[in-house]
Amino acid sequence: MQTINWYTVLKLIFVRDGHWKSLAFIIAFMVHFSIRSDISHLRTIPVPVDVERDASANDAVIETVEPRTVQVTLRGSYSELHQQLVENIRCVVRPRQKKNTPVEVVSIPLGSHSIRGLDRGLRVNKIDPDDVKIRFDVPMTLQLPIVAPALVGNPRGRVDLTFEPTTAMVTGSRRLLTSLDPEKVQVQTEPLDVDGRTQSFSTRLKLHPPGDARLRVEPSEILVNVQIISEKSTVRIEKVPVRLVQPSGTGPAWRCEPEWVSVELTGRTEQIRVIKFEEVGAIVNVENVREGISTNTLPVRILLRQGLSVDSATATPETVTLIPLPSTTPLR
After folding, report:
1. What CATH fold (topology level) applies to the domain 140-229?
2. Which candidate among 26, 68, 133, 275 keeps its CA 20 to 30 Å from the CA of 9?
3. pTM for the complete prediction?
């Protein structure tokens, strides 16, 4: 009895008015797929990748972003897909670094949240590739020695320098710093002007990073103590000829014995060292020597080129003897 009832029920559902039911099913099927096709169009477009820096990047410099463009497949109606402005769409990623141990490569998975600028009604169906790899030039620090500053000008004495600290920490791109040889590279200072200095003094000089201006130096300047040490030296110039000074045509003619002297010059070492033979002269003034005297002993005076500065100049011997030359009587 129960079997006959189920049979009757199924017959009523599928057989009675079967042609109308079949027609309704066909119409519903067509409407369903018509609507589905209208809202399920697909379109694949290239989308550029934009990187938004994060405060936790620790000053790491981005070297490369791979890929720079991703292929995004969008789903939506035909009209919505073709009204969407492609240039408004961006794939935005935000790389994050560990605060204390930054890494060189960060891989960021992509999803619908990464795509910005979509019109309403459009959905992200697929992103190819599904991740972006960002390579960082992670900063590093290198300790380098500081070279003594270059001196500019001529001090009045020997210069002795002391400065603190003697090393500096150079921070910057790992790519730049790994190319430096710590055994050969030094941190430079700005030049030190010591021209005309006679007294010791202290000054601060800025430090310059080696090689690339994008590197940072800590500290940025150092304190330099400059000691000016005045050293005395003596040089001896041999066989300086003695020149007799006498107005032309006055008094007897003379010669001196000896005809040259040695000259000793004393003064600051840096100035004494550069004096040349031709910059020194020796003279004897015979203008007031009386006639009729067989010999005369006169002091030798030392002449130096204008601009030379010495503490003392002495001749050896300090005097010369004048010997009159025989007079010549013109023949009649």
Report:
1. RNA Polymerase Alpha Subunit; Chain A, domain 2 (2.170.120)
2. 26
3. 0.46
